[in-house]
């Protein structure tokens, strides 16, 4: 585990005190809730689709080395090139060297979480290669210098007014409404697509049997990124592969509804190799970089392996009471929310708060929403047990010790009744303690005489 | 018939009225409530702190206290869910696993016991109040027994049940979560309270004492005249 630590508690406190952020989040999460209500919550066969997708992804994980080898062979046969990266630095080195060798100065990039994970844009920038994000949300946060706050809607934390101000500052103009602002961004980005020497994308699903890379998008920027420039570099984490087209279709049955409430995205692209001699468009070279970055170790862990089924749809973020109030930045990691609280700490050189798995209300909304049946609560529990094994919590130990002895347990409660019935004294003595902060917004009803004393009848003992 | 009453520590020491109401309801349906002495905590707190090693001795205490009982009933979905996890705390070849399973299989949340075990949906309760139901996560998604609460409430006479906009949303308690992240937890609870206020209800009902404590403590701080009622109090209102 990395030495860098992030204080999620402090970040959460800041986020809930940020009125502007709270207003933006409330509106955005309300909108997402509406999309869910009109899609997966109305889908009569959600459970059946989920079970099928879960089986497909689990089978793929169980055969992962074979599938990846097949993918490499088929994609190579189709004229593409496959690169393997053990970790983030290896992946950025591969892409940087490749683009430098081709004299690339400007790359256009479609949204890619694995790109964020490995810090690709910064690495390319250090090598003198400019990268322009072309997904509208990603473009906005690139202009703002922010990290994505949601894996599907990266600029979710910004209001329309904030984006408009940003456009004025960075682009010198804005639009009156969202369509007009989108046109402003489109004018800028269109020039970048035409000028770019390379296009960089992620991969939603890779089909081993055919060597095909499948990408979902709503804006057309991925189509342009992969057809205008002469080189297409696709990045994928190794768990994106499935066996065949039928399995890919099973994933596509559930991914768009779970992610955005759509039946299918506006653009669904299937890339099998670069441009062929008889074709008039498409990139001249296609490179696929397959990134591990700690995933082989997750794969070897029978308890945590299911997190590799994750499709990055964002459904667990959208329903999580913690994510809903904070957005993604408070997590201090690339992947936020329930899936992020599991995956992020397992990745190589993981930033974020080492106690992130404890920041959970145990509500189980994530597991209910997951389109591939990941039991986030069980995985978070496994992580909590591993963390607690080397950083015990004295209060829990004391409470559990008292609970082993009814006389002590009852005695402690009786002492509490005498000394500080409703905890206000303790809170006054320690206003900055967790208890003091807890009682700032709450009135504890107080300790009472135990009810079993009233209720126990003679002969009550079994 | 006898039913052994498993009283959660939160009910025993903070919300005893829920324990008394549960005993009343059990008596009213002909299940004589037996309260074994020596109950403390089911271990849920330690479990969620990632300490199954601390839960095991508490589970063994619980099993020893209740294994002679034909049926164990508790007014808390989360505590029942904890008891149902006991078997997985022990290795398959550990005799405690089989003992844990026997107790877990016979332990029910109050509504679960009435509806699923006794087949009752109407126990003749009557409560003239306009109230709303908070569907506790532990009752619905974790224990999968939310329908029993709804079924029982639907049959309470004079109960004017008004809907919440988001009854299924978590109230933000999460045990130690709300002490670890007090401001974040409160933000979640405030949204729940706002939903309750908007419903126009005079009382909020839940089958989970911890949610009621949490929601009630924020409502008290805000000086709202809205009561918290446990399912048992609603059902026991008429049973007396």
Please name the defining characteristics of this protein.
heterodimer, A: 462 residues, alpha/beta, 6-stranded parallel beta sheet, 4-stranded mixed beta sheet, 24 helices, 10 strands, 10% strand, globular, B: 240 residues, 4-stranded parallel beta sheet, 13 helices, 52% helix
Describe this structure in words.
The complex is a heterodimer of chains A (462) and B (240). Chain A contains 24 helices and ten strands. Chain A has helices spanning 8-17, 19-38, 46-62, 64-77, 88-101, 113-118, 120-126, 136-144, 160-171, 178-195, 221-227, 245-252, 255-260, 295-299, 315-319, 321-326, 337-343, 365-369, 376-390, 394-403, 406-419, 424-429, 434-440, 451-455, and strands at residues 81-85, 106-109, 130-133, 198-201, 205-207, 212-217, 231-237, 241-242, 267-271, 285-291. Chain A has a six-stranded parallel beta sheet with strand order 1-10-7-4-2-3, with helices on both faces. In chain A, a hairpin with a 4-residue loop joins strand 5 and strand 6. In chain A, helix 3 (46-62) packs across helix 12 and helix 9 crosses helix 10 (178-195). Residues 458-462 of chain A have low confidence and may be disordered. Chain B is an alpha/beta fold. Chain B has helices spanning 9-13, 16-28, 44-48, 52-66, 77-85, 95-105, 110-117, 137-142, 146-154, 177-180, 182-199, 209-221, 231-239; strands spanning 2-5, 32-34, 72-74, 107-109, 126-133, 157-161, 203-206, 227-230. A four-stranded parallel beta sheet of chain B has the order 2-1-3-4, with helices on both faces. In chain B, helix 4 (52-66) crosses helix 6, helix 5 packs antiparallel against helix 6 (95-105) and helix 11 packs across helix 12. Chain B is globular, with a radius of gyration of 17 Å. Chain B starts with a strand and ends with a helix. At the A-B interface, helix 1, helix 16, helix 18, helix 19 and helix 20 of A face helix 1, helix 2, helix 3, helix 4 and helix 8 of B.
């Amino acid at each position: 585990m990395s030495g860098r630590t992030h204080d999620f508690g402090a970040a959460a406190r800041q986020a809930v005190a940020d009125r502007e952020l709270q207003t933006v989040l409330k509106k955005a999460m309300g909108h997402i809730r509406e999309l869910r209500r009109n899609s997966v919550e109305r889908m009569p066969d959600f459970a059946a689709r989920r079970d099928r997708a879960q089986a497909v992804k689990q089978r793929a994980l169980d055969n992962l080395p074979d599938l990846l080898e097949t993918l490499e062979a088929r994609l190579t046969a189709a004229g593409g090139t496959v690169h393997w990266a053990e970790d983030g630095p290896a992946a950025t080195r591969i892409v940087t060297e490749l683009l430098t060798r081709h004299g690339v100065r400007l790359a256009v990039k479609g949204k890619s979480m694995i790109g964020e994970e490995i810090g690709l844009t910064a690495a390319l920038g250090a090598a003198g290669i400019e990268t322009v994000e072309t997904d509208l949300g990603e473009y906005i946060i690139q202009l703002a210098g922010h990290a994505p706050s949601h894996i599907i809607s990266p600029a979710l934390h910004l209001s329309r007014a904030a984006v408009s101000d940003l456009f004025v500052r960075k682009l010198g103009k804005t639009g009156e409404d969202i369509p007009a602002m989108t046109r402003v961004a489109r004018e800028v980005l269109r020039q970048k697509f035409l000028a770019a020497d390379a296009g960089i994308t992620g991969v939603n699903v890779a089909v081993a049997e055919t060597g095909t890379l499948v990408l979902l998008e709503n804006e057309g920027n991925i189509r342009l990124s992969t057809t205008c420039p002469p080189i297409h570099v696709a990045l994928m984490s190794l768990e994106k592969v499935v066996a065949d087209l039928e399995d890919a279709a099973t994933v596509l049955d559930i991914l768009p509804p779970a992610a955005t409430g759509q039946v299918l995205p506006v653009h669904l692209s299937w890339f099998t190799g670069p441009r062929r001699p008889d074709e008039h468009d498409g990139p001249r070279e296609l490179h696929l970089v397959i990134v591990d970055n700690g995933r082989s170790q997750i794969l070897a862990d029978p308890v945590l392996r299911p997190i590799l089924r994750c499709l990055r749809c964002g459904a667990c973020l959208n329903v999580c009471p913690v994510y809903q109030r904070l957005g993604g930045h408070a997590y201090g990691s690339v992947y936020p929310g329930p899936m992020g609280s599991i995956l992020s700490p397992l990745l190589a050189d993981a930033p974020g708060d080492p106690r992130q798995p404890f920041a959970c209300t145990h509500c189980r909304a994530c597991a209910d929403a997951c389109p591939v049946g990941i039991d986030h609560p069980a995985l978070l529990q496994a992580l909590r047990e591993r963390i607690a094994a080397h950083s015990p919590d004295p209060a829990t130990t004391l409470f559990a010790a008292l609970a082993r002895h009814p006389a002590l347990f009852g005695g402690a409660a009786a002492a509490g009744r005498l000394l500080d019935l409703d905890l206000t004294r303790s809170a006054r003595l320690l206003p900055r303690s967790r208890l003091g902060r807890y009682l700032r917004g709450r009135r504890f009803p107080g300790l009472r005489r135990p009810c079993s004393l009233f209720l126990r009848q003679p002969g009550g003992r079994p | 018939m006898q039913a052994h009453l498993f009283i959660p520590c939160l009910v025993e020491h903070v919300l005893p009225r829920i324990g008394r109401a549960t005993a009343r309801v059990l008596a009213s349906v002909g299940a004589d409530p037996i309260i074994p002495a020596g109950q403390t905590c089911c271990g849920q707190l330690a479990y969620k702190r990632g300490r199954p090693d601390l839960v095991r001795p508490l589970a063994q205490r619980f099993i020893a206290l209740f294994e002679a009982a034909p049926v164990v009933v508790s007014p808390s979905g989360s505590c029942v869910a904890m008891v149902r996890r006991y078997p997985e705390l022990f290795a398959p070849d550990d005799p405690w696993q089989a003992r844990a399973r026997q107790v877990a299989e016979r332990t029910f949340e109050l509504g679960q016991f009435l509806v699923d075990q006794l087949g009752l949906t109407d126990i003749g309760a009557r409560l003239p109040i306009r109230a709303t139901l908070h569907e506790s996560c532990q009752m619905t998604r974790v224990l999968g027994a939310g329908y029993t609460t709804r079924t029982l409430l639907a049959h309470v006479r004079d109960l004017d049940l008004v809907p919440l906009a988001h009854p299924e949303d978590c109230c933000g308690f999460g045990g130690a979560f709300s002490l670890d992240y007090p401001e974040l937890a409160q933000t979640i609870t405030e949204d729940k309270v706002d939903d309750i206020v908007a419903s126009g209800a005079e009382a909020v009902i839940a089958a989970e004492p911890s949610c009621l404590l949490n929601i009630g403590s924020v409502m008290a701080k805000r000086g709202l005249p809205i009561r918290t009622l446990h399912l048992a109090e609603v059902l026991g209102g008429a049973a007396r």
